[in-house]
What we know:
Blueprint: E1 3-9, H1 14-17, E2 27-29, E3 35-37, H2 48-57, E4 68-77, E5 86-93, E6 98-104, E7 111-118, E8 122-127, E9 130-137, E10 143-146, H3 151-164, H4 173-189, E11 192-194, E12 200-205, E13 208-213, H5 219-226, E14 243-245
Parallel strand pairs: 1-6, 4-11
Antiparallel strand pairs: 1-7, 2-3, 4-5, 4-14, 5-6, 7-8, 8-9, 9-10, 12-13
Helix pairs in contact: 2-4
Amino acid sequence: xxxxxxxxxxxxxxxxxxxxxxxxxxxxxxxxxxxxxxxxxxxxxxxxxxxxxxxxxxxxxxxxxxxxxxxxxxxxxxxxxxxxxxxxxxxxxxxxxxxxxxxxxxxxxxxxxxxxxxxxxxxxxxxxxxxxxxxxxxxxxxxxxxxxxxxxxxxxxxxxxxxxxxxxxxxxxxxxxxxxxxxxxxxxxxxxxxxxxxxxxxxxxxxxxxxxxxxxxxxxxxxxxxxxxxxxxxxxxxxxxxxxxxxxxxxxxxxxxxxxxxx
Length: 263
């Protein structure tokens, strides 16, 4: 796998962030009154599964996730919350590959996940609205394969197989830990920038106000196709983040500069 990209546009109204005490929060008070990191975001909550898949598919071997060498992120919010509701994150892997995440809850459109894998031999795509995997090899003859319809049953089958055979493959903590590294690196890389009001529209729905950032309808697709960050695509509200070295990464200081300020 040379590159893996996912685009997710899942709108969430204000009621989504009011449903509990941690939604939209960076940290909350723990049982003893101490601060406990939450780091809620689309990429660490609703769409974290796809981050995990991107990392896993980019691994050098079947049973391992990729080794991340760097993470660069751009984190934004249109909602009046602490955490980001929109993110663009790019990670480099030890095999020379790239992982790109483009996700937002601040959108009027419902799209995705739209996944694209570029490999040595083909480009593989899958959309959440189309239960078909499409493989376009270098020969140019596309092949369409139906997805397994019941994903939950697939997960449970793997679990039953593991119980019967301890050598059976499941997602281990080592595999999922790369997803956590990806997320922590994103918060190390970028402050959370509030998108200026002139680029945000608000509509009323059953769940309360829905904030939508201008250009999120077309921009993520363009960035995915060209493997660009928002800032590289010339988006006026998108400052670039710093590139964080993720090799030998031991402990996160995530969120230290990403609180409720107006950055």
